[in-house]
Design brief:
Length: 131
């Protein structure tokens, strides 16, 4: 008995390779379920929306700290416009405002919005930077 290799080659050339996706999907779902079961999730505290770190005490001895923003045009403290204190695209902010208040920097708009603690008036919350 002779083997007809030519007919076998033609038959193999005409068949197209097929990939069965069902086992692949099964494996992917198995891995996904495994990762979900073995992972540990923790709740995120969204108490601070400003993104600044919680500081228990102030480091350093300075009363005011410099906040530079390129193209700074407008500074608002508790709704009061304090843009007159801008010097060289920067503003000096009181350390208690940094520790206990809220500072929102909108760099694209060139704006800083500050909410100071109730015991600090707007004229004390910010100052003209000293060179």
């Amino acid at each position: 008995m002779t083997l007809d290799t030519q007919r076998y080659r033609n038959k193999m050339r005409q068949k197209q390779a097929r990939v069965n996706l069902v086992p692949l999907i099964d494996v992917i779902f198995t891995i996904l379920i495994f990762l979900m079961v073995t992972s540990s999730f923790q709740a995120v505290d969204t108490g601070s929306v400003s993104g600044k770190p919680q500081v228990s005490q102030t480091d350093g001895t300075s009363q005011y700290y410099l906040i530079p923003v390129t193209g700074l045009k407008n500074v608002t403290v508790n709704g009061v416009d304090m843009s007159k204190d801008i010097k060289n695209d920067a503003i000096a902010v009181h350390r208690d405002v940094i520790d206990y208040g809220e500072i929102i920097i909108k760099a694209k708009e060139g704006t800083i919005i500050i909410t100071s603690p109730s015991n600090i008036p707007p004229d004390k919350a910010v100052s003209i930077p000293q060179s």
